Amino acid sequence: MMKALLFPLIGLALAVVTIPAEALAQTPPPAWQTRPGALVVDAQRYRADQNRLEMERLRLGADQRRLEAQLGQLAAQANRDRIVGARQPEPVQPQPIPALRSPEQERAARQAAEQRRGADAETVGQIDTWLDRPVP
């Protein structure tokens, strides 16, 4: 009975011990590790080169996005200019010519305006006297 329990426990212990070894075997080496047994200086140079190349890649991507944005702005401006150029020009409205009246017509218009102002002043005077009346 003891042997029956012992074999599964040993198998379980071996499985637990072998899983981390398999997991470690499947993980890739670090990106900066060039080859086993390489000099430390080579690894540092490799890491510096990788960093420089990544920075250049990011800088080129930023430059490309900036140029695409400028290209989009130029295309939008050209499209707007094309639309504005295709518009129908607004017709030029000629200035109205002032009506020319004879001196007699001008005098008659002045006298009519004076009569209207006098009538308005008379009406306003009646309203003022009504407003100024004594209140009982």
What's the SSE blueprint?
Elements: H1 2-26, H2 40-86, H3 103-131
Task: Describe, in plain words, how this protein is organized in 3D.
The protein is mainly α and 136 residues long. Helix content is 74%, strand content 0%. The chain contains three helices and no strands. The protein has helices at 2-26, 40-86, 103-131. The protein is elongated and about 120 Å long. It starts with a helix and ends in a 5-residue tail after the last helix. The model has no long low-confidence stretch (mean pLDDT 79).
Helix content: over 70%
SS element count, helices: 3
Strand count, sense and barrel status of the largest sheet are: none
Low-confidence stretches: none
Query: Hey, roughly how much beta strand do the residues contain?
Result: under 5%
What keyword list fits this structure?
mainly alpha; 3 helices; single chain
Summarize the structure.
With 136 residues, the protein is mainly α.
